[in-house]
Write a structure and sequence with these properties.
Blueprint (H helix, E strand, L loop, with lengths): L2 E2 L2 H21 L5 E7 L3 H17 L2 E7 L5 H12 L6 E4 L9 H7 L11 H9 L7 H12 L8 E5 L6 H10 L3 E5 L6 H5 L4 E4 L17 E4 L3 E2 L5 E2 L4 H4 L5 E2 L6 H20 L2
Parallel strand pairs: 1-11, 2-3, 2-4, 5-6, 5-7, 7-8, 8-11
Antiparallel strand pairs: 9-10
Length: 282
């Protein structure tokens, strides 16, 4: 069996570190506050939002919850975001996706102030990441880097292949690996000879969105695999983009699904929210 990269354990380490920082801030009479907006009652979104609320409570972050009906207009949501942008007591704003079909998600996410964009989706924060400046990092990619670093896996000088080029996972993950001095290739649906490319990789990040797509034929012996995907099998069990059982004898370390990348996304959201308070003093 390969070494399991335990996202639950690492996420708890991060949250415990943040708990100490939040207590220190409270000693300075500074509260950390996250505003979470959910439009409609999508069941999966409700589960995620409730998880974020629990994380806030555990760490000591004040959580403001705005649960808006499905029929909320785009302008009403933009007005709320505008008010939260202007509230000096709110340090982070999160709009839970997906939004109802009558709303433009891109416009909504870009309406959040870059200084309160704890999801790291604003074009200004993505731009800062591209040029190496200090900004909020997208939570899932930031979590991937922490999984590797806190597991003692060297990134510098290693061949890294990111399978997937989404704006929120694939591209920023590649940029963060590059910042850590990895040699990075981004593969996608139009990539030719994918197996030849991934077989060179010391680190493979699978964010392709296809269940059990990556098998041992894609990997070299001893590769480290970060599985970003999450899907439900026909028997209702969870699986990732990687066929875990098939690659188990090939890889040296791998993230499980669940219990790998997913829990880290929430932990890094909390990290961004706490760091927002420190950024105010800069």
């Amino acid at each position: 069996m390969p070494r399991l990269i335990d996202g639950k354990k690492i996420a708890l380490e991060i949250k415990n570190e943040l708990k100490v920082k939040v207590e220190e801030l409270k000693q300075q009479e500074k509260d950390v506050c996250l505003a979470v907006i959910q439009v409609g009652n999508d069941a999966a979104s409700t589960v995620y939002v409730n998880g974020k609320k629990k994380d806030c409570e555990y760490i000591g972050i004040k959580s403001l919850s705005y649960e808006l009906p499905e029929e909320t207009t785009e302008n009403e949501l933009l007005d709320l975001i505008g008010k939260l942008n202007g509230d000096i007591n709110v340090h982070g704003i999160l709009v839970q996706l997906p939004l109802p079909s009558h709303m433009n998600e891109e416009m909504i996410t870009q309406a959040i102030s870059p200084e309160k964009d704890v999801d790291g989706f604003h074009e200004m924060n993505i731009g800062k990441l591209c040029i190496g400046e200090n900004g909020f990092e997208c939570c899932t990619p930031a979590g991937i880097i922490q999984l590797l670093k806190r597991s003692g896996i060297e990134i510098a000088g290693k061949e890294c292949v990111v399978i997937g080029r989404s704006n929120n996972v694939g591209k920023p993950t590649a940029l963060l690996l590059l910042r850590e001095n990895g040699t990075v290739t981004i593969a996608h649906s139009h990539t030719e000879n994918l197996k030849e490319i991934t077989k060179r990789a010391d680190i493979v990040v699978a964010a392709i969105g296809k269940p059990k797509f990556i098998t041992k034929e894609y990997l070299k012996q001893g590769a480290v695999v970060i599985d970003v995907g999450i899907h439900r099998n026909a028997d209702n069990t969870l699986c990732g983009d990687v066929d875990f059982d098939d690659v188990a004898e090939t890889v040296s370390a791998i993230t499980p699904v669940p219990g790998g990348v997913g829990v880290m996304t929430r932990a890094m959201l909390m990290y961004n929210c706490v760091s927002a308070v420190y950024r105010e003093a800069l």
